[in-house]
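Recall the central idea of this unit: under ordinary conditions, the amino acid sequence of a chain determines the structure it adopts. In this exercise we apply that idea directly, starting from the sequence alone.
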Amino acid sequence: MILTISPFLVSLSEAIVLTFSKPVVADNVGSFAVSRFFMSGSFMIFSVNFWYVLLLVILLVSIMVLGKLTWSFALNREVDKKIRQLHQKFTEEGDGFNYAEKEDYDEDFFSPEAIAFIKQRHDDPSGIAVREGAEFLKQSKNADSESRYRDFAQMLPDIVFETDIEGNLLFVNRTGFHILGISPEVLKQKKLTAFDFVDPRDVQKARENFERIINNRRSEDSEYRIVDGQKVVMTVLSYALPVVRKGQVIGIRGLLVDISQRKKNEETIRTLKDIVSHVGLGINVFRLEASRESQRFILEMVNVASEKLMRFSKPENIGKSLNEISPLFRKQNLQEYLERALVSNEAVELDDFIYQPDPTVKAKILSLKIFPLPQNRVVLLMEDISARKETEQKSQMTSFGLEHAGDIVFWVEENARFLFANETACQNYGYSRDELLEMTVTDVDSRVTMMQWYELIQILEKKPSLTMESIHKKRTGETFPVEISINKFVFDDKAYFFAFVRDISERKKYDELEQNIQVARKSAALKQQFLANMSHEIRTPMTGIMGMTSLLMRTSLSPAQQEYVRNIKISSENLLNIINDVLDLSKIEAGKMELKPNRISFGELVDEVHEMFQHQARNKGIRFTTSIDPLIPANIIVDDQRLKQVLNNLLSNALKFTDDGVISVDFGVEYKREKELLLYCRVKDTGMGIGEANQKQIFEKFTQIDTSLIRPFEGTGLGLAICSELTQLMGGEISVSSELGKGSTFTFTFKADYDKSDNEPFAAAQVRDFNELKLNVLHVEDKLLNQKVVGFILLNAGCNVDFVKNGQEAIDLYVPGRYDVILMDIQMPVMDGISAYKELKRLYGNRLCPVIGLSANALEGDAQKYIAQGLDDYIVKPFPPNVLYEKLSKWAGKLNSQGLK
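Accordingly, the structure predicted from this sequence is:
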């Protein structure tokens, strides 16, 4: 049986060595190697590499297990039978070699060293083959007749030869004639030597061996190559001894055993061992060691790859049981799978085996395949599939991401047909996936023809990616704008196109909205600029009109003249209010109005408002009252100008629409928290009232209750809209409660800060005497009328005034110490006020007196802009005399405190 298996194993090993000696180009190479020996197809093919390794290991283990028995039959059964027959014959005749009488070899024939060498080479621990060879040579030495020796030699299947002292062949048995390809006649006719048949590479070695036998008169064994009659090189093991006659060595006799196959097998084993050691898969061979108490799998062989995978040393673990090698094997019941493979005699596969020998290193994912082997052995193949699993996971995540992406995803072939469409594409276009995969790009993009598609492909030859916009069509016929990002990829020498399609309907709406916003902003900016220009142009003459009207009212006038001047003053103030309302609304709409909180005495603010409207109310016969909740702190922090603006608007309307009765203003506390108040103000009148239908409209811009051509009350319809915006800006809200014919109640709230520690009493009102300012003023103004107005106001305040028409004249006239204050107009010919100020500051530095700017520019931020450029203060035209007096008084006080006046 063994001799029958051996050729199969050798043939198998040749195939495997051939397979591993060449690079594997494709899977069909490995499949061919497997199918060559397993044509039945009953084996499950897990992986080509696993089959390579499995065949390797089966071959190697089989050779190792069966090797000893195989070599013990190297002369085959027929030879063994013939030799034993000869021994029986010699023993019966009484002159043979008796095993029972002698167990050691005859020193005359073989030295102990030679015997040990032959045993090792023949892999024959029992010594049977060596004994047979020795017996033959001994019998040949002691044979009574040459004929008997030759008959004996002819029966051997190996080459038996005899030479003279020169090496000339004297005798060759039949096997030798057959192998060497010569006949007895040739041997007689030609002078042939033993060295004629030795491979040229080993001739020198053979001659040296020959000489040692002759000279030492001792047997020698050697291994060298000979060439047979077919010119095939074969390796032989030579057993030779000297032939002695009458004390003289006359030649040698020898036996040549063909060990070519054995050498080939040894080389195969070395190759297999080398392959197994360096193959990328981890290979472990375990032997089952069973007892009544337990079963253990003992590690017999492990390759380098397995050592690296399991992070252990080979010498330390050979001979250990599976569970002793790693606790992880016991924890995951690996022995159970090994037992299952042996019991079922079938391969067992175990995927996703987690192996982490050290917590500090990343766990590995192993694929294990267990195959049964003869002699209760199993081979455990290990493959680290961590990278593959990670790649698979990433691939799955990518596929999942593409499938469930928020954008439409297509794979497109060169013929424009869809190869892949994700779920989002199906939902957006209204087609099933199968329907989409039967369609082309032109079916969803009506703007693209096949000619244009091929032109696009040509563009992508030079530019691998492209982004563009188009219009796509749904199943319903509805169209929607899209942005397409398309990339070209080449796979297996074929071009594919990967497209991301994004529905940009919302973005288009946003872009359109953004464009509208930009247009609106541009319009708002133009409107703002227009209002600023108009305001400046209107305020400039208004300054002269209002200034002269105020001065005229101080002169002696007849009753009729006083009525005329009063009408002029009221009309001027109304016009100024309209301008201010329009500007305020423009500021609010542009988001440029900012609150400027100040610490104020709340009682004084209410008194000012009361005093402002008390005279008008008395003239109309209306009782006007104010009240303050005592819970309101004496001093609060609020933008008093905007608060008074709201109050002025509400009280102006109350006086306008009330002919008799009462107007009351009540202040109270909505809530009071740490450093924050929410206050309310309730303005109640007994006037004409507002219908319920109109109450929702009165806070809209340019809305008036009475829209008839003949109206008893004039107005712009902006006052309440501005009040609404201002209260929101102050953190509150405004509302109205009214009934026609019974009056109205307007309530608004506003936030204010306060300080608990601030308990200062109301400051007593200061009586200012503006007649004694006595300042030296330089007025820089190009408009003659404005010069006269300001000049009259300053003269009435006891001031000395010099006039110049532009900034350059101011520079020429100014001398440090001559003037206490400069009133500088901003917009002038030759040199404007800002440029003049900067030049004066450069020339005189700290010796320059305070400079107050005058301008009709009244938009939000104008004052801050000019003061940021260096001016000390700023007054908006037109201004009443008291505003100018207040500013001059402020700077006169500072000058006095600094000792500069």
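Residues 505-552 form the longest helix (48 residues).
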